[in-house]
């Protein structure tokens, strides 16, 4: 069973930056396509795609975070990082890390139904 643990959430002011980490229990991180999703208050129906990184480290970002977010692997630490800059109130959400070994494009999988493993989430609140 693959376990994912997110960290790095918190309360930040608009315009500030935050780095989220996802620690993966598996040592061979490169086998997985990884993704970050988020669920905003009052939107419990579906987790919104944020970013994904594929098996060749290709990346795909949601339009809402493009240019402000970077997803990358730290293989030695077995983590997937999500650096987010210039945060705004619309970024307030619980952020979830996800992993899959299913077939994805080299740029990852943006669909939440493609993922088999999920973390418990970390809260990000952007407020002045």
Walk me through what this model shows.
- The model has no long low-confidence stretch (mean pLDDT 93).
- The termini are far apart.
- Strands 2, 4, 5, 6, 9, 10 and 11 form a seven-stranded mixed beta sheet that branches. Strands 1-3-8-7 form a four-stranded antiparallel beta sheet, with no helix packed on it.
- With 128 residues, the protein is mostly beta strands.
- The chain has strands spanning 4-7, 10-12, 18-24, 33-39, 48-53, 59-61, 69-74, 79-84, 93-100, 117-118, 122-126.
- 0% of the residues lie in helices and 45% in strands.
Counting DSSP E segments of at least 2 residues, the number of strands comes to 11
Shape: globular
- CA-CA gap between termini: 40 Å
Indicate the low-confidence ranges by residue numbers.
none
Percent in strands: 35-45%
Overall pLDDT metric: 93
Brief overview, please?
The protein is an all-beta fold and 128 residues long.
């Amino acid at each position: 069973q693959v376990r994912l643990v997110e960290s790095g959430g918190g309360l930040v002011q608009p315009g500030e930056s935050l780095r989220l980490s996802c620690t993966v229990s598996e040592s061979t991180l490169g086998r997985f396509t990884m993704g970050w999703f988020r669920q905003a208050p009052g939107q419990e129906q579906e987790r919104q795609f944020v970013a994904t990184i594929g098996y060749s480290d290709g990346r795909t970002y949601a339009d809402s975070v493009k240019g402000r977010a970077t997803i990358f692997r730290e293989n030695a630490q077995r983590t997937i990082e999500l650096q987010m800059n210039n945060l705004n109130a619309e970024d307030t959400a619980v952020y979830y890390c996800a992993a899959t070994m299913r077939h994805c494009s080299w740029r990852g999988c943006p669909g939440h139904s493609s993922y088999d493993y999920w973390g418990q989430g970390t809260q990000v609140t952007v407020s002045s």
